[in-house]
Amino acid sequence: MSSLDDLMKLEGADAAFTFNPSGELTAHQLAADSKLQPESLDLLAHTFVANIAIATLQARGWESATGQGGFYPVKGFTLIGLEYSTVGNGSCGVVLHNESADFEAAYAALTP
Amino acid sequence: MIKRILALDGVLGVCQFRDDGALVEGYGVLDEPLMRRMAKFAHDYKRMVQGNTDQFSMFTQLVGWAPPGGWIVHGERTSVCSVGNLVCFIDNAAASLNEVMGDMKEAARY
Amino acid sequence: MSVYADLALIDGVIAAGEYAWRGDRYHFKGQLSDEMARMASIMCRATTLSTHMQADILCTNIDSKDCPFSESHGWMVRGPQFSVCVMANTFCFVANQPGLLNTVFAHMRRTLMNVTEMV
Fold first, then answer.
1. Third-level CATH fold of B3-108
2. What is the rounded CA–CA span in Å between residue A45 and residue A95?
3. Does any domain span residue C34?
4. What pLDDT score does C5 carry?
5. Which chains form contacts with chain B, at 3 or more CB pairs under 8 Å?
6. ipTM, 2 decimals?
């Protein structure tokens, strides 16, 4: 898993953060011009925990119902906003500008 | 009808919402902007629970789960409970969850 | 041609489709059975509804002009071999090939980012 410094080097990174299994924010870094607050990152962290749990349920159900593997274990979740997206996996997340976001690089950086 | 629910022990607020999430009527300690937010939240949460229940039924092929009758989020001191298009929040120490859910179920039929 | 049909033509895309916000209607193209596409539609709609609620909650708690997720426009989930990208009511199942997820996102962003009407 990359450090927060490494995650901030991703193209278009606005924030990088870590969280515990409950979704509480444990550490973060913000870009100099970021408008995000730690409280917002804490909420984003909770959305990762919730969505990865639901995606895991879906991956398990899908694989057992269809026999098609390849979704479990879930390796990350992304929430897409108008100008920004946030990519999370494990205990880390990063906020990226959509214009320059490289999601594959973000997922690779977030792989433990 | 929903005013009856407010009269139960431990019920702090109750409201009814439309299928688009708009507030129909609400009573209790919340002011109107907060009541509108509660209606919107309950509507969104209802649809989310419906989605999760649909998936559970789809994957397990079990009958008797969908459509869901309601939901409860049980907090440390307060809980939010919903049946149909009604939602209320309660003080855990003062309210009987069974009584509240029973009356909500009855009121939701009207 | 509809967005999902365009997406299904991209090399490495397994299937793409669209679902109705309410009810059970769906359309798709690609390597899924009809039943799998129905299930995919139910799953994608459930997660989309959930992300809309989350974005609303997020921005209720942040000064609205600074909220980066004032509305949820979509989501992605990554598996070991496949990923799913969803924007508006269109879903796309893709193989984890280098460059493909970014290509699919760019196409969906260009065509679906401004869709707000929930049909």
1. Beta-Lactamase (3.30.450)
2. 11
3. yes
4. 96
5. A, C
6. 0.86
